[in-house]
Amino acid sequence: MSRPGALDWERVRARYADRPSLASLAGSSRVQVLEVDDERICLGQRLWRDCVSRDDLDAALVLLREGRLAGGPMAVAEGLRAYYASGPRVETGCTRGPNLVAVVLADLGYLTPP
């Protein structure tokens, strides 16, 4: 079932079913898709693994469509970090979430190249 303003999750699952590697936000390193299911995408590199939820991706897409985030990947990551630090979903501590959301949205074609 589709949610208003949400990603087409069937497209997302199909895109990442073969676990491709994605361009990172900076540099030449790649981020590997490790798993995708009905609620999240898990990515990693040699020393870490983390997941972003479908809700996190949908929330970022809504903010992007409303013009509350700039369109470049790094700007989206920084905008999400500011949103999470001061908005209705306050999160403290270090998290890869905003970066990984930007990586996935860039790979899906929602963000403008740097």
Question: What does this entry look like structurally?
Answer:
- The protein is of the alpha+beta class and 114 residues long.
- It has one domain (9-107).
- Helix content is 39%, strand content 19%.
- It has helices spanning 9-16, 54-65, 73-86, 97-107, and strands at 21-23, 30-36, 40-45, 48-53.
- Strand 2 and strand 3 form a beta hairpin.
- Helix 2 crosses helix 4 (97-107) and helix 3 runs antiparallel to helix 4.
- The mean pLDDT is 88.
Strand order of the largest sheet: 1-2-3-4
The helix/strand series, from N terminus to C terminus, equals HEEEEHHH
Number of helices: 4
The largest pleated sheet is described as: 4 strands, antiparallel
**What integer is the average pLDDT?**
88
Share of helix, binned: 25-40%
Name the overall outline. Answer: globular
Q: How many β-strand stretches? A: 4
Relevant terms:
4-stranded antiparallel beta sheet; 4 strands; 114 residues; alpha+beta; 39% helix; single chain
Kindly summarize this structure in a few lines:
By secondary structure, the chain is α+β, with helices and mostly antiparallel strands.
